[in-house]
Amino acid sequence: MMKKHWLYTDEGRRTVWRVGLAVLAITVIVEWFVSLHPHFTIEKVFAFHAIFGFLSCVAMVLFARLLGFLIKRRDDYYDQ
Amino acid sequence: MISSLLHPGLLLILGGLLLPMFSGIWRTAWSLLIPLLSLAGVWLANNNAFPAITFLDYELAYYEADRLSRLFATVFAIMAFTGILFCYRQARITEMSAAMVYGGSAIGVVFAGDLITLFVFWELMALGSMFILWAAGTRAAWYASRRYIMIHLLGGVLLMTGIVAHVFETGSIAFTAMQIGSVGTWLILIGFLINVGAPPLSAWIADAYPEASFSGMVFLSAFTTKTAIYVLLRGFPGTDILIYLGLFMIFYGIVYALLENDMRRILAYSIVNQVGFMVCGIGIGTELALNGAAAHAFTHIIYKALLLMSAGSVLYMTGKRKCSDLGGLFQSMPLTAICGIIGALAISSFPLTSGFISKSMITQASVNQHYLTIWLLLQAASAGVFLHAGIKFPWFVFFQKDSGLRPSDPPWNMRLAMLLFSFFCIFMGVAPGLLYQLLPYPVDYVPYTAAHVLTQLQLLLFSGLAFFVLLPLMQRTLTISLDFDWVYRCLLPRCARLFGSLWSHINHGMSLALLWLRQGLLTLFGGIYQSPVVSHSVVRISLAVIWVVLFLAGYLIFYLIEF
């Protein structure tokens, strides 16, 4: 039996999530201390880039999922 | 004559053609030395060094170097060298030879000052890349190469027709910036766009490239699409339609890559996506945007090759391409994983990598022009790049579930090539001035401001969060996604079969009619047609005659309509 790498243990995963969320929080908090000199009005919303990045990814994944119902085929489709 | 051998493109082409004549250590030395000599030639050869060649009363400008062409030729030569380093101990000789011809032709295109030279090298590129596909030696690669060459010959025919029309109209074969409007320039643009992977014919990239060998795709990813970016940069800067085509390509690449299971097809779709950013930049057309498109082509060649070397190493060591078969490889292939991650960070424009300093010029150009919608779409797309290539590729190949596979890192030459390109990705990102001084226009842009770094980190890291939150929606399935290639892989063959059976019915009916006619004639005149053999062939001949008559009648009708 191979020894499990720590990344594959439950505890390891929890640690990775905690560190990751902490880094995310930092990138948002730092915005209070940096002047962003926004060009467009919409950029003035606090943490705009974080929100926009997250939401656009959700939108793209959902769109891909829906399109998938239409265009996905078994991967031997063209071999027949 | 000696000076024309130092034409950096011709040098690489001849070097590639002569390569099979060497063996052992000489072959190695030759294959690595020639790209380096070519790189030297890019910077040393000057415009008037070559003897004049005339073709059909036109004097060919087959070597015209300026900043833009030198920039592209430099990265092509670096790519040829590192690609060969990556595979010279493993790849077939056909593939290496073809790769040198292919890279040399790409360099030939960027130094072509006239449309005729451009076309010749353009077609040589198609041939070189087809041989790379053949060298993979599989049935799938053979069929893919036929579809690939079909698309590129179509592009070539359109380009040639456009060139003829354009030269007829303007009387000049010089390749300079053009305005779309005439039939000639439209056809030239379409010919260029086919090679860039523009809609609707984007499918050839993801169809053909992943069928190449583990190293073949590294070469294929670099030259064809980026040469097309070069010709668009020179020929059609600031053409509005390119903005929208580019945006379409960007999102096409993301969505198809999200649906894909094959790691190399994910990377193939991401080529379309990245090239879309460049096409969009060319469409915006300001000096900053054009600089950005050129810089992005330069950095893209390097990080995409790095990603494909990493994927190629996995393929070489495991023989597997599907994400659903892979996972957990970071444990036994740490170097391949790290280099793959560096490439993934660079393609995502992470600060301190090459992608950050190049793509941001295109985005900034859209800000400077106050294009709010385009800017928002580019930002969303940047987040999407991190999603489909930046995380998806390394996550599914090197992490996710433990597949139980324990391959080691690849042989040393493959590792060295990956390390070299990883170094480039970081070095260019840390010291942006190096690349900026090579760009076609003077650069007045500072990528590293606190605001830019912070907003980019927010954008990317939160799309990373989205990836892991939505992971259940992205579990890999054993599927492919239909694309426009369905038209020429399924629909057209079906129509052809249908038409074929219809055709034989028509022919059969007409034979019956002719036999009936002959019977009638026999009864009337009798005795002329005696032998049954003769009578049979008479029916056939008369059938052919009838078709000829019908075609001629068709021509006549067209002729009458014309006048």
What would you say this structure looks like, in words?
- The complex is a heterodimer of chains A (80) and B (563).
- With 80 residues, chain A is mainly α.
- Chain A has 2 domains: 1-34; 36-73.
- Chain A has 2 helices and 1 strand.
- Chain A has helices at residues 10-29, 48-71; one strand at residues 72-74.
- Chain A is flat and about 60 Å long.
- By secondary structure, chain B is mostly helical.
- Chain B folds into 3 domains: 1-209, no CATH class; 237-476, no CATH class; 485-562, no CATH class.
- Chain B has helices spanning 2-5, 8-18, 24-44, 67-87, 93-110, 115-135, 139-170, 183-196, 203-208, 216-235, 241-259, 263-284, 287-318, 334-347, 354-368, 372-398, 412-430, 433-436, 450-469, 485-525, 532-562, and strands at 53-55, 58-60, 479-481.
- A two-stranded antiparallel ribbon of chain B has the order 1-2.
- The radius of gyration of chain B is 27 Å and the shape is globular.
- The two termini of chain B are 53 Å apart.
- The mean pLDDT of chain B is 90.
- Classes of the chains: A mainly alpha (80), B mainly alpha (563).
- The interface between A and B is large, with 45 and 50 residues.
- Strand 1 of chain A pairs antiparallel with strand 3 (479-481) of chain B.
Protein structure class of chain B: mainly alpha
Helix fraction of chain B?
over 70%
- Tally of helical segments of chain B: 21
Principal-axis shape of chain A equals flat
Considering residues with a beta carbon less than 8 A from a beta carbon on another chain, report the largest interface and each chain's count.
A-B, 45 and 50 residues
Distance between the termini of chain A: 41 Å
Give the strand content of chain B. Answer: under 5%
Biggest sheet strand line-up of chain B: 1-2
Rg for CA atoms of chain A: 20 Å
How many strands, what sense, and barrel or not for the largest sheet of chain A? none
Distance between the termini of chain B: 53 Å
Shape of chain B: globular
Radius of gyration of chain B over all CA atoms, rounded: 27 Å
Residue stretches of chain A low in confidence (pLDDT < 50, at least 5 long) are: none
Output the helix-strand order of chain B.
HHHEEHHHHHHHHHHHHHHHHEHH
